[in-house]
Amino acid sequence: MMNRKQLEGLVSDGGALIDRRIYTDEEVYRLEQEQIFGKCWLFVGHESQIKEPGDFVTSYMGEESVIVSRSKEGRVHVSLNSCRHRGLKVCRADKGKANSFSCPYHGWTYGSDGSLTGMPQKERYYPNLIKSDWGLQQARVDIYKGLIFATFDDDADSLDAYLGDSAFYLDALVDRRGQGTEVIGVQKWIVKTNWKMPTENMVGDVYHAGVSHRSVFDMHPDAKAAYAEIEDSLNVSMTGGHGLTVRLLDEDTPIEGRLPCETQMAMMEPKILDYYRQHDAATREHLGPVKSRIKSGTSGIFPNFCMLSTTFCIRVAHPRGPNESEIWNWIIVEKDMPREVKEAIKGNYYFAFGPEGLLEQDDDENWEQVTAGTRGNQARKAPFHLGMGVGLEGEHPDLPGKVGPTNSEHPQRELYTHWHKMLLADESDTYGGC
Amino acid sequence: METQLDNEVLSPVGMEEQFSLEQFLYNEADLLDERRFTEWLALMHDDIDYRIPVRHDRKQASRDENWAIDKELSSGDDELHLSVNNKLSLMARTMRLMGNRSFSEVPPSRTTRLITNVQAFTGEDENTYLVRSKFQVHRTRMERGGDWFSGSRRDVVVRDGDGFQIKSRCVILNCNVLESANLSIFF
């Protein structure tokens, strides 16, 4: 078991040196469940999945199964999917509509707001039980432009404060014209990697693309051109451990270059270009002079919510032990997009991401091999090097956060520095009694 | 003799066609196991629709509603499948499998496809067949570990000269969460 001093040494040199044990150590993982997944705002779903009262989807907050539901009154609830009597899941479906959730063991029954509505033999054997004390445990819920977040921490800052500067960049994906978005999904699969690897990759790792994804870029000159564009991006790190790769386009960039997706993708499906051309003026007006010139690549919102904006993908890596993650992918589109445009976006997504995606396959392979590379007792005595481009980041006249060139690992350093701070934040005796 | 499947009444093909279609499927699976991807791709029709739906756990809308498999499969506009391919994307995938920089397949997967329970029925015309089969696919890669995939397939097979081509294939995996890092292989 690690003592406090060893825990303090896990991240050093401003986040540039990372002890490999943060990916494999059981004790670190156990601490993360309380200090990170017990405290952060976690993405659990989208309002479009639960449009009507009684609609629900099941999701996860860390390892905890939760029910995301809309109550009779139309409020969004996030309830722990664990009966207060003996702990069974009271909901076994991935999604659906239900007025109540009943435990299959003894029949304790809960409403769509998570409140205990009854159990067999209540009058005779539970005369003094106060039902309002025994509802499903509730997480705090807040919604950012359709994205539902929840936290187990009653003392946590507001969601707006938590998202901080990342909301500015998020808007270019989820609030282009104020027309609302909806999600399409979800794909779920297992990658034998620590949950931090996907986030680390997406807050600012363009460096890997030219090597890992070479097989895709070699396929077609257009793919090579798309890669050249992302190489010319900026990396942004933000307070709170969020980060992204982004380009700030010139004001006179023609419409073809200003699409949120890859230009090449729109060229393959003229309906996409038509759609964006039709709404260009309204989008510029709504987003304003700076946000409308943002073209995001990959981004990560601490701890495990990520986006691949050019394929409209949003995703979560749920922790499943130190060496395994369950990846959930959706795509997010504007509600008023014509069906053909949504279908074209789906087609492009399948090609690149998800379990069969040609880019995703190589990413998942890398993350599994990173995890394999953290196991050896000797190997893990040498820390990982995250010192690329130290000191190149700084203030930017237009963009919030700290901004540096693409090939600077400052978002990764910020991510791990923040992670480390949260891991150690609790001054109580959480640290295994050490 | 007629066979009832999911409210569809289908007519099984004769013994000779049954034999030819079985041999076609075994040969097709063997081409994949042997990594002869160019030859495999030639068995895919130009209009091939290859897909793997996501399989949900669902709630019955009422007590007397049945548990039909089709209701568990992703199908709506608001859903993603695990895999969707046409001829062009299959071409890209096989091209990549044959390259040396596709790191999820360098070194490549070692696979064995067991194809069984083949049921062949007459299709919409004399050159079209509906063929159902079950599979177990085992894959290992690098030193250790491996994946087992089990499920069934619903194919539309069309006659192509002396042989056949796959016009559409729907792969129904038994899993809800896919317990594998990727679907770099075909079923």
How would you describe this structure to a colleague?
The complex is a heterodimer of chains A (434) and B (187). Chain A is of the alpha+beta class. Chain A folds into two domains: 42-144, Rieske [2Fe-2S] iron-sulphur domain (Rieske Iron-sulfur Protein); 165-424, Naphthalene 1,2-dioxygenase Alpha Subunit, Chain A, domain 1 (Alpha-Beta Complex), CATH 3.90.380. Helices cover 30% and strands 25% of the residues of chain A. Chain A is built from 15 helices and 21 strands. Chain B is α+β, with helices and mostly antiparallel strands and 187 residues long. Chain B starts with a strand and ends in a 14-residue tail after the last strand. In chain B, β6 and β7 form a beta hairpin. Chain B has a single domain, classed as Nuclear Transport Factor 2, Chain: A, CATH 3.10.450. The chains are: A alpha+beta (434), B alpha+beta (187).
Number of spatially distinct domains of chain A: 2
What's the CATH topology label of chain B? Answer: Nuclear Transport Factor 2, Chain: A
What is the CATH first-level class name of chain B?
Alpha Beta
CATH class of the largest domain in chain A: Alpha Beta
Count of DSSP H/I helices of chain B: 3
Uncertain parts of chain B: none
Strand order of the largest sheet of chain A: 13-19-18-17-16-15-14-21
